[in-house]
Amino acid sequence: MVLKREMEQERVKTQELLEKVLKLNREIQHTKGKVKVLVKGESLQFYMKTCKEDGVDGRYLHADEKEKAISIVKAEYYNKLINALEERIRNINRLMLCIDRTDPFKIYLSMGKGKQRIVESLVTSNKEYREEWLSEEYQGKEFREDTSEIYTDRGERVRSKSEKIIADKLYNENIPYRYEYPLDIPYFGIIYPDFTILDEEKRRNIIYEHFGLMDDENYVNKAISKIQLYASAGYILGDNLFITMETSVKPFDSRILDGIIGVIKK
User: Fold this and answer.
1) Would you say 176 and 198 are in contact if contact means Cβ atoms under 8 Å apart?
2) Could you give phi then psi for residue 36, rounded to 5 degrees?
3) Which residues, in sequence order, are CB contacts of 201 under 8 Å at separation 6+?
4) CB count in 10 Å sphere of residue 215
5) 3-state secondary structure of 41
């Protein structure tokens, strides 16, 4: 579900910002009191109020006390931001629970098998959703003329023997996938993941990349850039992004693929 994925991305970004602010807040000196800052032309004047005797605006702070005032102002900002971010995360969590609880297809499933025979689901079933997903036509990345012809059990052409192993394993495990399905990355453009896998229960796409030439420095740099692009688009390693690699010394180990499939099927 697009909305749920967007909320998850927002939660991750908010959590990252919260951790950054918490770190900054720990690094400053904390002093009790309230600071008032007045703008005088190009300069700032600081007044600090720690008790009633300090007057309406507070006691004027001289140059040697300004660092303390600046720390107080920063602490005020950080504390307000921490409270706001923590509240934001709580609200996102509540909204995500609400999205799950009110999912139209889950409402139909909750009716039970007998009642499902009486009422017709007004939303697409998992089976129908899968069939529509698999039937979508798309233009993948073109093959160069000098590329070896390697075909999977499903009859599609792939670029390496390792990719054939992966494709055949997914196919035989009845896991729906698309090979080199175009993915539009915001502010970048179209890239072609090796495999786009359908998570039927959550109705989302999972990206699976196999990097097969990790001996090559230029290839490694491109692989890193691609992983960074996925991160920028909200893909999280081990959740909706999986990666395997190989070198001439360390070939592809299909047992790793078995573990990934186990996670996907949960």
Assistant:
1) yes
2) -110, 135
3) 126
4) 12
5) coil
pLDDT in tens, the chain (266 residues): 567 768 888 888 999 999 999 999 998 877 777 888 888 888 888 888 766 655 556 777 777 788 888 888 888 899 999 999 999 999 999 998 888 888 887 788 788 888 988 887 788 877 888 998 999 999 999 998 888 899 999 999 999 999 999 999 999 999 999 999 999 988 888 999 999 999 987 778 999 999 999 999 999 999 999 999 999 898 999 999 999 999 999 999 989 999 999 988 87
Q: What is the CA radius of gyration of the chain?
A: 27
- The DSSP bridge pattern shows strands 241-245 and 204-211 to be parallel
**What is the C-alpha to C-alpha distance for residues 162 and 93, in angstroms, rounded to an integer?**
39
Q: Quick one: how far is CA 164 from the chain centroid?
A: 28
Cα separations in angstroms, 112 against 102, 116, 128, 202, 241? 17, 6, 19, 20, 33
* H-run or E-run covering 241: strand 241-245
Distances in whole angstroms, Cα of residue 158 to Cα of each of 150, 165, 252: 6, 10, 16
Q: What are phi and psi of 12, to 5 degrees?
A: -65, -45
> In the structure encoding, which two tokens stand for residue 82, read together?
């921490």
Instruction: Give me the helices (H) in 34-183, please.
Output: 66-101, 104-109, 113-118, 126-135, 161-172
Question: Which H or E run contains 199?
Answer: strand 195-199
Read off the pTM.
Answer: 0.57
